[in-house]
Amino acid sequence: MERELKPLLEVAEALGNFRAPFYFAGGWAIDLHLGHVTREHHDVDVLVMRSDHSGLHKALNQFSLKKIIPHPEGLVNRGTLVEWTAGERLELPVHQINAYRAGESEPAFQVMLAESSNNGSEWIFRRNPEIRMPISRMGFHPLWGLPYLAPEIVLLFKAKHLEARDRIDFDHAIPALSVDARQWLRDAMEKTHPGHEWLNTL
After folding, report:
1. Within 13 Å and on the Cβ side, how many CA atoms surround 116?
2. For the chain, what is the domain count?
3. What residues pair up with 116 in beta bridges, in sequence order?
4. Pairing state between β 79-83 and 96-100
5. Smallest Cα–Cα separation from 71: which of 82, 87, 63?
6. Which end of the chain has the smaller Cβ count within 10 Å, N or C?
7. What is the DSSP-derived secondary structure letter of residue 52?
8. For residue 24, is it left (φ>0), alpha (ψ between -120 and 50) or beta?
9. Please, which residues have CB within 8 angstroms of residue 96's CB and are 6 or more apart in sequence?
């Protein structure tokens, strides 16, 4: 398992000086919740709160950081890569930063920025601000392992694009969700994706 998790361990080490919570997201979060690797992963996504993102430059000073400026919905290319300069505060719609090792053209990992309430107590779903979760419940912090985003939040993000890997992750994750997690996901899906195929299973 440790060999399979090497990409995550490298990212966790890179973020060792980041003085704020971070969570592995995407398909890796599902596998961390399940306790084993269920499929091949092509990238590593990490989520941090937007309110903490100013510390990323200092923590990741070995990396080149680029922000993605999203394109309007419907375009094949989802965004334009632009250098993210130290001290620049990123606001919506920018919500992704790519981190590159020196001399490499593919990102080592991606940082996703998450929204929160003014008092910092709730995570807010950027695609539908009605949907929230206490920050104390949005991730898991196993003493023995790597912090990861709650699978129900991961699946809510994945519901939009429904690529093959998203369906695989859903099928693997659903049996491992608690009753409360399934109910939260069902409520969130009904508000954001009414009529979605996953609602039949939830």
Report:
1. 18
2. 1
3. 123
4. unpaired
5. 82
6. N
7. G
8. beta
9. 67, 68, 79, 110, 111, 112, 113
51, part of any domain? yes
Domain holding 116, by residue range, is 6-150
Tokens describing residue 101: 């090792």
In a domain, 156, yes or no: no
Q: Which helix (H) or strand (E) holds 188?
A: helix 179-192
Q: What is the pTM of this model?
A: 0.93
DSSP string, 129-164: TT-EEEGGGSEE--TTS--EE-HHHHHHHHTTT--H
CATH number for the domain that contains residue 76: 3.30.460
Cβ-based neighbours of 195, under 8 Å, separated by 6 or more: none
Q: Convert the pLDDT of each residue in 11-61 to its tens digit.
A: 999 999 999 999 999 999 999 999 999 999 999 999 999 999 999 999 999
pLDDT tens digits for range 90-149:
999 999 999 999 999 999 999 999 999 999 899 999 999 999 999 999 999 987 789 999
DSSP state of 15: T
In a domain, 39, yes or no: yes
Whether residue 66 lies inside any domain: the answer is yes
User: Residue 202's CB: how many other CB atoms inside 10 A?
Assistant: 18
